[in-house]
Design goal:
globular; mainly alpha
Length: 161
């Protein structure tokens, strides 16, 4: 990967990578650190990484960095206390969003990451399998189980029939 391709990767994937990190970490500062570390590592390894693989490499690095940060217990600030602003919504939508976020946060890390990558970021099964180093069958199973858990929690909250 050359400097021009690196700059294209930064411009193209920064927003998506940040959203993924914020949803994973629930903290804007930690998400910024994760994204910055990803791009620093990408630059350090630019000679070893093909430009076509940069996207999956960045998301894999962000996922692993998030897990490491969570394991170390560096989660000090919740999303509500950060400067990250989601679009304004009606109060009913806000309550639903809160319940969905709580449901997602109760999932195992792998299921949550797959749901975020698939449903929020729009990645296909193959891309998710490359990012998370799983096979496509595992991605489908984890996605199904994660969605079922969220659906069951929404049923319990009487928000889903």
């Amino acid at each position: 990967m050359n400097t021009k391709e690196y700059n294209i990767a930064v411009k193209t994937y920064s927003g998506r990578l940040f959203r993924f990190a914020v949803k994973t970490m629930k903290n804007q500062d930690d998400a910024n650190d994760i994204v910055q570390d990803c791009y620093m590592k990408l630059w350090e390894n630019k000679d070893k990484i093909d430009f076509e693989k940069a996207k999956s490499w960045l998301f894999t690095t962000a996922y692993n960095g998030s897990l490491n940060k969570i394991k170390k217990g560096n989660r000090s600030q919740s999303l509500e206390g950060s400067k990250y602003n989601e679009p304004s919504v009606e109060s009913d939508d806000f309550e639903l969003r809160e319940i969905i976020n709580k449901s997602l946060n109760s999932l195992p890390a792998i299921q949550k990451s797959i749901i975020l990558l698939r449903d929020l970021e729009g990645y296909n099964y193959k891309e998710i399998s490359e990012i998370l180093n799983l096979n496509e069958s595992q991605v489908k199973v984890y996605l199904f189980r994660g969605r079922q858990m969220v659906k069951n929690q929404l049923k319990e909250a009487k928000l889903f029939a």
